[in-house]
Amino acid sequence: MGEQIKALEARATVYHHISLAFLKPDAGLFRAPAKGSFLRALKKAFSHLTSDPSRKLPPLPEALFPDSPKSLEDEFRRLFGHTVSRDFPPYETEYGSSHVFQQTQSLADITGFYRAFGLEVSTEQRQRPDHISVELEFMHFLAMKEVHALRNNREGAGICEKAMRKFLDDHLLRWAPIFCDRLLAAHPDSFYGRMAEILKRFLVLESSLFP
Hints:
With about 210 residues, the protein is an all-alpha fold. It has a single domain, classed as TorD-like. The chain has seven helices and no strands. It has helices at about 1-20, 30-50, 70-80, 100-115, 130-150, 155-185, 190-210. Helix 1 (about 1-20) packs antiparallel against helix 7, helix 5 runs antiparallel to helix 6 (about 155-185) and helix 6 (about 155-185) runs antiparallel to helix 7 (about 190-210). The two termini are about 20 Å apart. The model has no long low-confidence stretch (mean pLDDT about 90).
């Protein structure tokens, strides 16, 4: 039980931190302690999830972060600005849903997952339900909800695990690896390209949990 909880907490940490990375930049990440804690949290989480050297994190120096908040804001705006990128859109329904009806159905299914657990997308972030950061944060929520159930000997852990597996199969794994590959290929040395590489490696680990 203890190892299961540690693994779930590590998975939740990765989901949460990468979710934050793909939101509009927060200047708080640029304080030196914050940058260090962000990277340490990812490294520590991955160390709990795999001992396979080929699946561990690539080097994550603090130099990974641009020199200033404005630099990252400019990069974010350039890659994910007001118009949806055609090369690597951060929205699920931009992948494989060519018809408006299909996109509407996919959005309804995603929103249905959130509402089944009493969640609504925050209006403050002004993000669509199918944005990469929103979907990752939902997985973080499910992982921590399962941790809470296991620690308190409550029912519901199995429900959370099944929901995580289904959301991965029906949504994240269908498009996020493609998003990561495209972003990494176009901007391999950028902050967002490196985050895409980390997410891709993590999703490989996640898919191996539910063969």
